[in-house]
What we know:
9 helices, about 15% strand, globular, TIM Barrel, about 250 residues, alpha/beta
Amino acid sequence: MDFTVKKYNELLRSLIDQDYSFQTFEEFLKAPKARSIILRHDVDLMPANSLAFARIQANQNIKGVYYFRAVPESWDEAVIKEIASLGHEIGYHYECLTTCDGNLEKGIKDFESNLNKLRKLAPVVTICMHGSPMSKYDSKDLWKHYNYRDYQIIGEPYFDVDFREVFYITDTGRRWDGDKVSVRDKVNSSFNLSFHTTQQIIEAAQKNKLPDKIMMTFHPQRWNDNLFNWSKELVVQNIKNIVKLGLIRLRS
């Protein structure tokens, strides 16, 4: 079975065995190591799953970055504080143009307000767009009119990572090759690599066939050992993929 916590542990072990450095996004931006992995986590739902990931990583003496949305299904202050206390980076998973119906002025005020609230819980110097696939608004468009560096933000992955040099892989769509059903989680990559299952990534790592620099994005709500939760996520995500594929075709 894929997308279980057991399989996640196997993946993590395979990467550790290849002597990668695990950097937070902040660390990577300031001093990228020659052979490094950024473990990125988009906390869209079920923050307890993200806490479980954070504890697993801390037990292995590695760290990642966790991006929290400013919505009840993601924003759990106790979880945010504990993840930060484990040495992980906390970031803001903004979706301001979606929540403000495309209004730029309201959107930037919403961004600033939520960022300030999050900074009361942990230091925040990086942000990451939440795709909001059902929305017609792309929150990255906020930065066509404003500058996030005015808010002491040093990086946003979709603007500040050269994905021609950093291999990007994400479990969007509950698969590792879900770019066809992804509305906005897309990058311009120069790597001719594709994986469908987690096991395929593990085997590539074991054969030392992964690039030196990687950003690996997880949505921890997708990873469950409990059979009921695992099955529920599988069914729901398959339905979402069909809807998103329809949206992509409609908008194109």
